[in-house]
Design goal:
single chain, 566 residues, alpha/beta, Nitrilase/N-carbamoyl-D-aminoacid amidohydrolase, 3 domains, 6-stranded mixed sheet, 18 helices, 15 strands
Length: 566
């Protein structure tokens, strides 16, 4: 195929990726974005069919940039606190390099397996890509440089809720497999059609060495397409039958509670410069919001992450003032405060405070953001900072080089999978970026959690684009666990999600709000909660088999080349 045509296809891939994920024109998912995402992986499949070696790596790397970078434009929102354009450029270069290399390696390995198993390519490609995407759901918790699941091929399907109900059986990996499978089938039959038409071969510049598939490999791929399509169809039907059951359960539930999601519109990034009069004004705002929540019959006051501009116990005065507001209305509350313990370690701790202002329980945030809540490789970085500062003791305005401020306050990770016991039932609390990882939620539901609340600090959400990506994650967490989810961020918005992933009571973006709604308490578990990521691990194991088999044959081939002929 002509390189110019393929580069044009990668350009179309970038356009489809941009409009499939939340964007500045259509911030929320819809049927159109759900349809577009099925076309985004097609160029990767064509690369595996056509190219190999260096060409496959470079083109798939470009395809990875086409998929990630248009959607990553929303990352400009979370970089507004960086004043230097050079720092922003370096971050984007780092993201680009990581995406280029990872996509290049994944497609290079998948392409080698496709050539080794030509009759299984309809299975091989979805398995390998889904296996890779599944690893993004588990490894970033432990490996700081591993790309987190900020964007997944499955997310746009929240625009067509019937398609994501299978997540209650398979987890997000099942929906991811669905997207990749459909893309593979479209690419396979489209490419075979091109190879069988002389005019199309000439127009696309197909070399004579590329011939259409025939015989046993073609028949096997046709059978696999039908079989996998049937299995996925059955999973979708079963997921929707499961959704109908939970729709009935949540409507008939006699147990529930009414949290008040308090979106304050306070910027946590400005806490360090808050003056006493601003803190007094903030307390007045909270007093009004708490009173409104009490008037609407709230059972729990849910503050956002970093709602209190303090570090405890140093800021005990502000803490006591807020507890006083809670005592006035006699409603329990959940507040997150950066807390320093006696051993000088700092944690992001969420305290469950009763109506008397007394601490009853706590949860410590488990997943921490690299370079945001802690600094990886602290020893090496500290040494580098000291070396740089020894050279640049003053600011050089021409090159914008200055001494680097030194901050040793890293947060420590929590280790306990805590369920908070309320009068009404058992609450699962997950904080901010923990919403990316379904494992946290599945384990908590298995331990007896009946409802989920996710507070976040959204000072970087300058438009609804990035915020709506988090709402997509909340929809998947609701479907996977079949639990109601309440999500609130400090400067973006709040919403509730029922056990089917439907959005309820969504507040306007960027407006101070008190969002009170009854959340039914559900106790029956989904199959995904019972059996976990069976499909994701199956894809990983099959990927290891395909790659291992290909590697073994490659080594035998290399050994054969080294044996001299007699």
């Amino acid at each position: 195929m002509r390189k110019s045509i393929f580069l044009f296809l990668i350009g179309l891939q970038a356009v489809c990726a941009f409009f499939a994920h939340p964007n500045y024109l259509w911030p929320a998912s819809n049927w159109f974005s759900a349809l577009l995402i099925f076309f985004v992986p097609i160029p990767f499949c064509l690369i595996m069919f056509i190219y190999r070696g260096k060409e496959a790596f470079l083109l798939s790397g470009l395809g990875g940039l086409a998929v990630v970078m248009p959607s990553a434009l929303s990352l400009f929102e979370i970089m507004n606190f960086i004043d230097e354009w050079m720092a922003v450029a370096m971050i984007f270069i780092f993201i680009g390099v990581v995406c280029f290399v990872f996509f290049g390696l994944v497609c290079l390995g998948a392409g080698a397996c496709v050539r080794r198993f030509p009759g299984l390519m309809i299975l091989t490609i979805p398995v390998i890509i889904t296996g890779w995407e599944f690893l993004r759901l588990i490894l970033p918790i432990w490996i700081w440089f591993f790309p987190p699941p900020e964007l997944m091929f499955a997310f746009p399907l929240t625009g067509m809720l019937p398609l994501i109900q299978m997540a209650s059986l398979t987890g997000l990996a099942g929906v991811e497999f669905l997207v990749i499978f459909v893309s593979t089938v479209l690419a396979f039959f489209g490419w075979q059609t091109v190879l069988r038409r002389a005019r199309l071969r000439s127009w696309f510049g197909v070399s004579k060495g590329l011939q259409p598939m025939s015989g046993k490999p073609l028949a096997l791929n046709l059978r696999l397409s039908a079989l996998l399509g049937l299995l996925l169809g059955l999973l979708i039907v079963a997921g929707n039958l499961d959704a109908a059951k939970f729709y009935r359960l949540q409507n008939e539930s006699q147990r529930g509670f009414k949290p008040a999601l308090l979106q304050s519109q306070f910027d946590p990034a400005s806490y360090s410069v808050w003056k006493p009069r601003i803190k007094i004004a903030a307390l007045k705002v909270y007093q009004g919001m708490i009173q409104q929540a009490a008037e609407e019959g709230a059972d729990l006051l849910m503050f956002t992450e970093n709602a209190l501009p303090m570090i405890w116990p140093e800021g005990a005065e502000l803490w006591d003032q807020v507890r006083g507001l809670i005592r006035e209305v006699k409603i329990p509350a959940l507040l997150g405060v950066i807390t320093t313990l006696e051993d000088q370690r700092a944690f992001n701790i969420w305290y469950l405070v009763d109506g008397k202002g007394e601490i009853q329980d706590k949860y410590i945030k488990q997943f921490l953001i690299t370079f945001g809540e802690y600094l990886p490789m602290r020893g090496a970085i500290d040494l580098t900072v000291r070396a740089i500062n020894s050279l640049f003791q003053k600011t050089y305005k021409v090159f914008k080089i200055t001494a680097i401020p030194h901050d040793n306050r890293d947060l420590s990770r929590g280790k306990e999978n805590k369920i908070l016991q309320l009068t009404q039932g058992k609450l699962i609390l997950r904080v901010c970026d923990e919403i990316m990882f379904p494992g946290y939620f599945r384990k908590s539901v298995r331990d007896g959690g009946e409802v989920i609340i996710v507070p976040a600090a959204g000072n970087w959400f300058k438009t609804p684009v990035y915020h709506n990506t988090r709402l997509q994650m909340a929809q998947f967490r609701a479907v996977e666990t079949r639990r109601w989810v309440g999500y609130v961020s400090s400067m973006a918005g709040s919403a509730y999600f029922d056990a089917l992933g439907r959005i309820h009571s969504q507040t306007p973006f960027g407006q101070q709000s008190v969002n009170v709604r009854r959340m039914p308490l559900l106790t029956e578990n989904s199959l995904y909660v019972h059996f976990g990521d069976w499909l994701g691990w199956l894809c990983v194991l099959l990927t290891a088999f395909f790659l291992g088999w290909q590697g073994w044959h490659w080594m035998r081939k290399q050994q054969g080349k080294r044996i001299p002929s007699s």
